[in-house]
Specification:
30 strands; nine-stranded antiparallel beta sheet; 6% helix; globular; 401 residues; disordered N terminus; 37% strand; mainly beta
Length: 401
């Protein structure tokens, strides 16, 4: 693929290496997996890798919530809860091999139950806003909860971020995999059709965390899923992300009104504070008097990912110069949403008592565009019986020496 932006030197998909092993080796692997009680091993450098499970708390109705830790042979750890599919923690090294948690969140389940900024969760059925909580599908108008009045936000009051998913650990030679499923009934939060959803987290030894979103329905409906993790590659939310440097593989962005609803169409990034085609610090233009920046109180916008096919493509690169940590975001989704923690206001006490101030975290949410059901010019979010909603995003962590 020839990239539109020379900064992206190799826009190629993340590929899985083919594995050819004999029957004897398959048997050996199976016996090994059974012997260790499903997925745990020790690498050559002595680091334990695999998946562990611990109790995270209980919901008000008494149902138990668990926390799963995926650890690879490099000692990278990802902690995921079956409540809301929440990414509770991602622990990665800096250039000096110091390991730090680089996502915002809470030490206990109670922190997630009483706070409503979607920390680390899967949001749906429809991520982001739907204008006035209404859309028309097959000549029928549907009314959704206006939980961000007058609009509908992130699937409603009880979206996918606030339900208990069924979790399954999956043994694999190359990945540490957690699969979570949830069945959303017909009429849930006002949406038509029963929707069967599957979210799969896969960590490999290249420090890549893949999230795969799958869904099927028994009636025409709309679907838009994403992960709402807040990142701070320097210190996990103790300081501003303004000095993180960002590149977006996008020539166009989606303009919005003051309620952050798309006004229709796309605009070129060139000559605007939305131009991240070359590396620039997130805070460089975030206080601009540009109308779009004022509407979002910072960045709260969509960029259209440059692509020539539906394969994984590199959509974003974030570099934190003090620690040397680098985050690449690859996706099959059509757009990426940058949110710069504009609603963090110092009232959220996170992990280890950290107070999350405005712009202490950023989100890079790969997804379809907000309010797409009301914009025919946007990529469709309609899912019909017999079709499959199927998208992937990969968060790849590196270190720049």
């Amino acid at each position: 693929m020839i990239p539109r932006n020379p900064y992206f030197k190799k826009l190629v998909g993340v590929q899985e290496s083919p594995i050819r092993i004999s029957v004897e080796k398959v048997i050996t692997v199976l016996v090994f997996v059974i012997a260790i009680g499903m997925i745990s091993c020790v690498s050559k450098n002595g680091n334990h890798s695999g998946i562990t499970k611990e109790r995270f708390g209980a919901l008000p109705d008494g149902r138990e919530v668990n926390l799963y830790t995926l650890q690879n042979r490099n000692s990278m750890k990802v902690k995921i809860s079956d409540y809301g599919c929440i990414v509770q923690s991602i622990i990665v090294p800096d250039r000096n091999e110091h390991f730090t948690d680089v996502v915002l969140g809470f030490d206990s389940l109670q922190g997630y139950l009483k706070n409503n900024l979607y920390f680390g969760s899967i949001v749906g059925r429809y991520a982001d806003r739907i204008a006035n909580g209404k859309f028309i599908l097959d000549s029928t108008e549907y009314s959704l909860e206006q939980n961000s009045f007058p609009n509908h936000l992130h699937g409603g009051v009880t979206g996918f971020d606030k339900v208990l998913w069924s979790a399954k650990e999956i043994a694999s030679p190359n990945y540490y995999t957690l699969q979570l499923t949830y069945n959303s009934p017909d009429g849930d939060q006002g949406y038509p059709g029963e929707l069967k959803v599957k979210t799969t987290y896969k960590l490999n030894d290249n420090n890549e965390l893949e999230i795969r979103y799958e869904a099927v329905t028994n009636k025409p409906t709309i679907v838009n899923l994403t992960n709402h993790t807040y990142f701070n590659l320097k210190d996990g939310g103790k300081s501003s992300i303004s000095d993180h440097f960002l590149v977006l593989n996008a020539d166009q962005f989606v303009p919005v009104n003051k309620l952050l609803i798309p006004i229709g169409g796309f605009r070129n990034c060139e000559g605007t504070p939305m131009d991240f085609r070359k590396s620039v610090s997130i805070g460089n233009r975030i206080e601009s008097e540009d109308e779009q920046i004022r509407f979002g109180n910072g960045y709260d916008h969509y960029w259209i990912v440059n692509r020539i096919n539906q394969q994984l493509v590199k959509a974003a690169i974030v570099n934190e110069p003090v620690t040397g940590r680098v985050l690449e975001v690859w996706t099959t989704q059509p757009a990426i949403h940058l949110y710069t923690g504009n609603f963090l206001n110092g009232t959220f006490k996170g992990k280890a008592g950290t107070i999350y101030q405005k712009r202490n975290g950023f989100c890079l949410e790969t997804q379809h565009i907000a309010d797409s059901p009301n914009h025919l010019e946007f990529p469709s979010t309609i899912l019909k019986p017999g079709e499959k909603y199927d998208y992937r995003t990969v968060f790849k962590f590196n270190v720049e020496k």
